[in-house]
Specification:
By secondary structure, the protein is α/β, with parallel strands linked by helices. It contains two helices and eight strands; from the N terminus they run E-H-E-E-E-E-H-E-E-E. Strands 1-4-3-2 form a four-stranded mixed beta sheet, covered by helices on one side. Strands 5-8-7-6 form a four-stranded mixed beta sheet. The relative contact order is 0.20.
């Protein structure tokens, strides 16, 4: 299993954006723990939200996520509701891909996600 850690200026605020689109917050370490980290998940997919400090130089922050797309599959019976939950984040329209999956794309916290039905 791959579980990416996405560098965010504020992982707690970024987690709220994910949560607003229907993602679950699995755990959240307190800021004073010295390891500010939040785990969020959608269906059986989870990612960690970490900090930029110490990992990304200030002049590189605007390029975070550039050229990377996280491909996430969700159950077919949940796909429409998940899409509706992401519309407020300016999700693209649903498209049938040449490989037969239905997908949409959405930017969350500066990162691009392609969410697909299984």
């Amino acid at each position: 299993m791959v579980k990416p850690i996405l560098a965010c200026k504020d992982p707690y605020e970024t987690a709220k954006i994910f949560q607003g689109a229907g993602w679950q917050i699995d755990f959240s370490k307190p800021p004073e723990s010295g390891d500010p980290l939040v785990s969020v998940s959608l269906s059986n997919n989870s990612i960690l939200l970490g900090i930029t400090h110490g990992y990304v130089r200030e002049e590189q922050i605007s390029y975070i996520g550039c050229g990377v797309v996280f491909y996430i599959t969700v159950p077919k019976d949940e796909f429409r509701q998940i899409y509706d939950n992401h519309k407020k984040l300016e999700a693209t329209s649903i498209e049938l891909q040449p490989w037969s999956d239905y997908t949409f794309e959405v930017m969350i916290g500066g990162f691009k996600f392609m969410i697909a039905s299984e």
